[in-house]
Amino acid sequence: MAEVVLQNVMKTYGNLYAVNDVSLTVNDGEFVALVGPSGCGKTTTLNLIAGLLPMSGGDISIGNRVVNDLDPKDRDIAMVFQNYALYPNKTVYRNLAFPLQMRKLPKEEINRKVQDAAKLLDITHLLERKPRELSGGQQQRVALGRALVRDPAVFLMDEPLSNLDAKLRVQMRSEIKRFHHNLNATVVYVTHDQLEAVTMADKMAVMSGGLLQQYDTPANVFANPVNTFVASFVGSPAMSLIPLEAAGNALRSPEGWELPLSQLNARKAANSSTNKIVLGARHSTLKLHKAAVPGAVPGKIYTVEPTGDVTFAQVFINGAVVNISLDPTARIEPDETVWIEFDQERMHLFDAETTMALKAI
Amino acid sequence: MTDATASRIRPVVKKSVDWWRWAGRVFLTFLLLFTVLPMAWMILTSVKSQFAAMQYPPQWWPAEPTLNSYFKLLNPNERIGQDFLRYFWNSFYVSLLTTILGVVVAVPAAYAFSRFRFPGRNFMFFAVLVRNMFPAVVFLMPLFLLMRWMGLVNTHGSLILTYLTFGLPLSIWLLKGFYDNIPIQLEQAARIDGATRLQAFLLIVMPLSTPGIIATSIFSFIGAWNEYVYAYTFLSRDDQMTLPVGIQRFFTEFATDWPGLMAATFLMSVPVVVMFLVLQKYFVRALTEGAVKH
Prior knowledge:
The structure holds two protein chains of two kinds. The relative contact order of chain A is 0.12. In chain A, strands 6-7-8-3-9-10 form a six-stranded mixed β-sheet, with helices on both faces. Chain A contains nine helices and 20 strands. Chain A is an alpha+beta fold. Chain B has helices spanning 3-46, 50-54, 68-74, 79-115, 121-130, 140-149, 156-180, 184-192, 197-226, 229-234, 243-253, 258-288. Chain B has two domains: 3-46; 68-288, MetI-like fold, CATH 1.10.3720. By secondary structure, chain B is mainly alpha-helical. Chain B is built from twelve helices and no strands. The A-B interface holds A 47, 50, 52, 71-73, 75, 77-79, 81-83, 85, 87-89, 98-99, 102-103, 146, 150 and B 183, 185-186, 188-196, 199, 204, 207-208.
């Protein structure tokens, strides 16, 4: 196992910056998720680590060895692809044996390692089958098996779960997590699903437009998003963002109401480059009132979505859609006017101009 | 779809399908007769005696079938047999070389067109296809002059070169479609698993593209095997003739020996038919591959 270090990594296509100056360190044995919407550069970054694409700039090292100019085969990595990329004309056994054969291991050793991997993933009974005779979940296991049979320094995974149905995805999610735990493997995992990243990863790297936005533990990313992009990308339902104006110790809405700020929050708001502020709040930190209370702002119910143990409501506040979670016993109707109370401790303030989170310095 | 809607729609659909089906059957029967009758007539005539073949009204079914014509053609001790076997060998040799060289060129070309983005890629791919926009005869004189200039007239090289030029566009085009359908991740996986680029191509991609290679091989082989006009123009020495030209020559030279001619044409079609029957599976797969997303 080994650590992976990216330093100022660039990948350009003409004027397009697919990966723009990304630096991050994946510690030995860590599970890191690269997460972001499609086209954000996460898969490109993974392919750069794998050596499948040439870099335009920067350095990548795996286990203290700069691998910039090394072929994929010499980087001591294994990769699991979204479409599994199992060799269709080979049996499962031959698929698993291929990386070992390429390394010219003796036959007995290949056999032993293949059997071990098959046992670990519970696919021993499938060894003589061809990939097309397997279910999606089984193919997924074989793909994992082919990656781990060689005991590589780093595992790279490119959306390995997105071709599975919802139920199987949840099951394989915990299996991959277990697999990481058992092998103590260094894993770089690409996904567009923030929930996968949050549930599986030790650290998540949120990317957008080729730029690394934030790199931290899921808990920290969730609690302290650095900008509005990260705030709205991580969490489900997403953090609600309301554009407002700073007015002394309060935030003012063009609709006429004012939201008073705590001292700390007022200091944050004062640091904004303009008086335009974006207020962010997660659904669970909001309180709904049926009548006006001090410090609450008015809104109109848009939709009500009961999910069983919690009911989500969407409320229009100052033209923005705000998600709020309610007790399932709550009785509210669309178009009803309600008052929303914010939690001063857990609200987020962003500079509307720079989109960055405001700090109280 | 519920059962109720299905049963409501069915009667209407059934009627129109039946009508079309019958029209289709009639048409296909007609087409079948159109293609099979000449072949049947060819085979039947080839086993008649010279006298029976010339009879009028024609004798549909040979009263005394004989394989004499075949014995004559395949007997290396007779003049006619020597010629025929020589033509057969010439054709085989020219077609085989055309096919092998074609595959050797088309496989890397198609792979490059499919996998790599390089300057001039679109233009070159278009240029490859331009040849197919003109009828083959248009190139007859220019190519003849070119071959004469290169000193290739009266050599089999001139034919192989010409057939390659004509066969390659289709081969490259067909094979490119094949490579497009092989996910690039397979090669990437192989390269990560320890293969070089070349090994990934040879060990993973090549086996998967075998049906395509077989299909293109059949195409170029048949193209070369059947070609007449260029062979007729480029070759004048009797011992170099390929089958299509040779057959035509030596049967007009002597009195028209219909059973002999038919036996020769039948023997000429044997390799192609056998090839089709043996490799049909791959051939059909090659033409339908990619029609449906897997």
